[in-house]
Amino acid sequence: MVADGSRYVVVIPVKPPGIGKTRLVGVPVEQRVGLATAFATDTVTACLGTPGVAQVLVTTDDAQFAATLTSLGAAACPDGSSGLNQALVQAVAEAARRWPDLRPVALCADLPALRAEDLAAALATTTTRTSYVADADGTGTTLYTASYGDFAPHFGVGSAAAHEAAGAAPVAGDLPGLRHDVDDIVSLRAAVTLGVGPATSAALAAFGLG
User: Fold this and answer.
1) The whole model's pTM is what?
2) Is residue 37 part of a domain?
3) Is residue 1 in a domain?
4) Is 8 left (phi over 0), alpha (psi -120 to 50) or beta?
5) In the chain, at which end, N or C, are there fewer CB atoms within 10 A of the end residue's CB?
């Protein structure tokens, strides 16, 4: 349950899989594309199954991939910008137009170990205050939420400190699947240890990476 009765729209920025996950060094391009697709699929699926989440909006310039994610039940809109934070601001403006009564939550697309209970637990601690979830290293950010009027994300290098400096409150708790985004082979192994979703499991098995 969400503590204050709020309902959320989760906004997920997704790079076209063909250009994503270049830090998976040693993994061939075709396999990186498959994994990036699987990560986002599992992330979106977990969000759609989370209590308190009324809508999931994916922002991407890959029309084919957008169709894949909308077939799961998400909505989609074009990226339309050259930077992550600006893309999120534009997508949240679209969310405000479509669902003015919901509260926006920006979420990374590379959380293959995400579980609905992790996301629900994080949302249950956010009321009307701007909040963020730091990644497993404590330096990055995997989730950021604020009202439409206060939404000002600072994703990028050192984003956890940037969000806190801007007045956002860190969300406490283990939340393992929510904190483990996948950027490289080491973080992929950590996510696999936690237990990844079905799309990622299938991709790993298909590529012999399990």
Assistant:
1) 0.92
2) yes
3) no
4) beta
5) N
Element counts in the chain: helices (H) and strands (E): 8, 7
CA–CA distance, 94 with 91 (Å, rounded to integer): 5
Residues 67 and 75: their CA atoms lie apart, in Å, by 9
Residue 58 φ/ψ, nearest 5 degrees? -95, 130
Cα–Cα distance list, 157 to 90, 105, 119, 141 (Å) = 21, 19, 23, 9
Residues facing residue 75 across a β-bridge: 57
What are 155's two structure tokens?
């994703």
Specify the CATH number for the domain of residue 17: 3.90.550.10
Query: Would residue 128 count as lying in a domain?
Result: yes
Domain count, the chain: 1
Distance CA 162, CA 150 (A): 15
Q: Tally Cβ neighbours within 10 Å of residue 142.
A: 27
What is the number of other CB atoms lying within 10 angstroms of the CB of residue 147?
13
